[in-house]
């Protein structure tokens, strides 16, 4: 049965426990950062940061509001990154049949730098990053090794507030709908983001763009053509990606 996350951002305190736990489990090095006037650090995802807690601050109806977004790969049901990679190196990106996880393999080293850039641009959520040292494409792997050992993903295990939830997809969808009804009482503009297309289902308290640019695929340009959002990109994927892109 496919697995999914439900991420209730209304409960997130930005403690960054999930971000650190992800690094620890995957044995990823720290990223050197500097004070930029924001607690968000590092400023962006990178080849050794698969999970990034994003911060944004807005004045809404005369009040200062903070929005926290624990970002990671969405494990798309029909992943554009995989469609592109399949056109170049079969097996560089695979989908685990049991969980639905989208996994980048060692074969991604065979992709050229330009092909890796194309894959990142095709991702509607701007997630994957190339490790310039090894040449591998890197991102969240849904902690597939933990799942195979009967454990839940590290970021879910660590989260102390109930923001991060994980389970069967149907169970997570039901939890998302139930939680939305509650959250809407305080935040009437709250919504569930892209639930039909992804296995990391976010609840946001206000318009997605208040969190950051790539929260929803509806606003994202895939980089393969003006106005080519994820939805119309996917509609065109009836042929191998390589042919579409020449
Ligand atoms: S979010 Fe991006 S990297 Fe993750 S599966 Fe979807 S297209 Fe691929
Ligand atoms: S599922 Fe695992 S790899 Fe993905 S963000 Fe959570 S801890 Fe990191
Ligand atoms: S561990 Fe939970 S509360 Fe802390 S930043 Fe991550 S999602 Fe938010």
UniProtKB/TrEMBL annotation:
Alphabetical GO biological process terms: cellular respiration; formate oxidation
Signal peptide: none
Principal place of residence: other
Subcellular location: Cell envelope
UniProtKB keywords: 4Fe-4S, Iron, Iron-sulfur, Metal-binding, Repeat
GO molecular function: 4 iron, 4 sulfur cluster binding; metal ion binding
4Fe-4S ferredoxin-type domain boundaries: 3-33
GO cellular component: cell envelope
Pfam families: Fer4_11 (PF13247)
Top-level taxon of the source organism: Bacteria
SUPFAM superfamilies: 4Fe-4S ferredoxins (SSF54862)
InterPro entries, per database record: 4Fe4S_Fe-S-bd, FDH_Electron_Transfer_Unit, Formate_DH_Fe-S_su
Name of the molecule in the record: Formate dehydrogenase iron-sulfur subunit
Organism: Desulfovibrio gilichinskyi
Lineage, uppermost ranks: Bacteria, Pseudomonadati, Thermodesulfobacteriota, Desulfovibrionia, Desulfovibrionales
